[in-house]
Write a structure and sequence with these properties.
It is built from seven helices and nine strands; from the N terminus they run E-H-E-E-E-H-E-E-H-E-H-E-H-H-E-H. It has a five-stranded parallel β-sheet, sandwiched between helices. By secondary structure, the chain is an alpha/beta fold. Strand 5 and strand 6 form a beta hairpin. The site of guanosine-5'-monophosphate has 15 residues, from strand 5, strand 6 and helix 4.
């Protein structure tokens, strides 16, 4: 069986990666599996452990780093976030197209680690403008001002990394951008089959 793709969706905080990802996952033909990350962040209302994230303590996370359980990890606004390695590889071996939705620092590590892997597809999601991004970050209303400022400052720096990705997609409208990404994935799946 052909190994599945590793699909990387990244972009600045607040750009809408999560919403776009949920939309894309409605398309079952793409044979996607979501890579559930580990984080030390506290769950937001409605988030489910083992579904949105594996919510763990700092201690458990640092143990995972030490044991090399993570494909990549990053510290983001005071918390750890990382991708469990074994799960990603297992799913790809089963022919699933594994979808990582992660911030840019971790994505950079994945892109370096997998630079020889033809099964990698990297997509950077762009906000229509920085003003719009600020509105979206504030719209969550779940965080104090200093955290919002930190997320915004980081988002501006993150935008400079878009050139490292195979595709840049503008998130001007959730349905439109999700459709564009689904089409990119579909074409890559077809190209991956032909490469045999
Ligand atoms: P949030 O706290 O809003 O859920 O996530 C903050 C940021 O961390 C988002 O940009 C999200 O995509 C990113 N993120 C989620 N999981 C991971 C991961 O496993 N690794 C890295 N590097 N970033 C992640």
């Amino acid at each position: 069986m052909k190994k599945g793709l590793l699909i990387l969706l990244s972009g600045p905080s607040g750009v809408g990666k999560g919403t776009v990802r949920k939309q894309i996952f409605k398309n079952t033909d793409l044979n996607l599996a979501y890579s559930i990350s580990m984080t030390t962040r506290k769950p937001r209302e409605g988030e489910v452990d083992g579904q949105d994230y594996f919510f763990v303590s700092e201690e458990r996370f640092e143990e995972a780093i030490k044991n090399e359980e993570l494909l990549e990890y990053a510290r983001f606004v005071g918390n750890y976030y990382g991708t469990p390695k074994a799960y990603v590889e297992k799913l790809r071996e089963e022919g699933k197209n594994v979808f990582l939705e992660i911030e840019v620092e971790g994505a950079k590590k994945v892109l370096e680690e997998y630079k020889e892997d033809k099964g990698v597809l990297s997509i950077f999601l762009l906000p229509p403008s920085l003003r719009e991004l600020e509105k979206r970050i504030r719209g969550r209303r779940s965080e104090p001002e200093e955290i919002i400022q930190e997320r915004l400052g980081k988002a501006k720096r993150e935008m400079g990394l878009k050139k490292n990705y195979q595709f840049n997609v503008l998130n001007d409208n959730i349905n439109r951008s999700s459709q564009e990404i689904a089409r990119i994935i579909d074409l890559k799946i077809k190209a991956n089959k032909v490469e045999d």
